[in-house]
Structures are given as C-alpha cells and as structure tokens.
Prior knowledge:
The chain is of the alpha+beta class. It is 40% helix and 19% strand.
Amino acid sequence: MVWLFSVSTVGDAESMYSPAVARRLRSMRGQTPEMTGILAAAAAREHRNFAGAVSRSHWPVVARAFFRTMGGRYGDHRNWPAIDA
C-alpha cells in the first residue's frame, strides 16, 4: 500500500498561517495533473498534505516579509499524530 505526502506551509489540518488565511489557501489548492499522474502510476491510496517546520533563516528577506505580512508564524507546525496515522 502506497501513501504519498507533501510538506509545505499549509497542511490539510495544520498551518503556519492563521486559520482564515489557511482556509483560503486550502480552497485554492488543487490537484495538479502531475500529482494525478503520480498517484495513478504508484497506485497510491491517497495523497496527504502536512505543514512542516520553518525558521526565519530558511527564507530570504523578501520571502520573510511576505510570510509575516500573510500572518505566518515561524516554528515547528508538524502534527506528529496525524503523520503517524
């Protein structure tokens, strides 16, 4: 059984952004043709999205400014129980 997962600033249940921003970003996220092809080729059961960990030093100055303007919070946003499940 194969499961695929992606890590970014916005997971399916957790996020580095405020709940309102995270909801908006999730609503804009769609399955790309590439991911659809990978899911089919791997006969994957499902694709899940998880938030990761980010520190100030991970991004250049312009990206940090955008991140903070959008209400982003640095830190570890991984949801280990959800990842384990």
